[in-house]
Structure formats: structure tokens, C-alpha cells
Amino acid sequence: MSSCDSLLARATEAISRVPVDDENHTVAAAALSRSGEVFVGLNVYHFTGGPCAELVALGVAAANGVLAKDILVMGAVVRRAGNESGKVIIDVINPCGRCRQVLLDYNPEMEVIVRDDGGGGTVVTAESLLPHAYIWPDGNTGDRS
């Protein structure tokens, strides 16, 4: 099993523990650090908004002493209700715009698992997710002038 498959499996495991009681947008993310540790985050849906799973995973890593610049790979899955069958579907999901900016700011070389045309996952860099991006001058991106 590749590190990407393993990360998506960890995110799927986390999201599978959440009771299915509605069709809210529930996302789990897993982040792999340079040291091989995996940190999992889950968004907590509320109608007022809330943190994305990717940002929660970065926070969990930070709480364990791992900086975002030391995250090598990030992947996320979404859980949604299926069609008439009522079956729960878990799919790879691409990071939203805010998460793309955060991942770029903290580690432009971070690999991010995104959904490919066939519904599976493929790996791109955080930098490639935001062409012509705003570069945060105080970010942890190193010398990118």
C-alpha cells in the first residue's frame, strides 16, 4: 500500500466512526510528516461554518510538535449520502481555496492528494494548486521572491 493509499485509509477510518445522521458535508484529512507520523483531522459541521479537516490535521500535528513545513503529504476524503440506495459514499476530495492557500503558505512542496478524472487520487504539489497565487510575506514558505 502506498503512502497515499495509507493516508486516505486513515482518513476514511476516521470519517467512518462519525454517525451518519444527515447529509452534511463531513470531511476527514490525514497528513504524513517527515518522521512518518500520521495526523488525522475531521471537520465538525455547524451551520455557522468551521475549520476544514486539512486545517484541523495541521493543528493536530502542531499540537504534537510537528510544524506544517514538516508535513510531506496531505489527503482528504468526503462522506456523503449515496443515491436512492442510501449507501454512504466516501470519496477523495480536493482542498478548498482557503486550504490551498494555507498549504501553499506553509509548504509549497507539500504533496497533496487530489481527485483524478477517474475518481481516484493523484498527487500534485501545493504550489501547483494555486497558479498565480498571492504569496504571504510572513508565511513559512522560505525564499520565494
From TrEMBL:
Annotated GO biological process = nucleobase-containing small molecule metabolic process; pyrimidine-containing compound metabolic process
Alphabetically, the GO molecular function entries are: cytidine deaminase activity; zinc ion binding
Give the GO cellular component terms, alphabetically. cytosol
What domain of life? Eukaryota
Similarity comment: Belongs to the cytidine and deoxycytidylate deaminase family.
Q: Where is the CMP/dCMP-type deaminase domain?
A: 2-137
Organism this protein belongs to:
Podospora aff. communis PSN243
Name-wise, this protein is: Cytidine and deoxycytidylate deaminase zinc-binding region domain-containing protein
Fetch the Pfam families from UniProt.
dCMP_cyt_deam_1
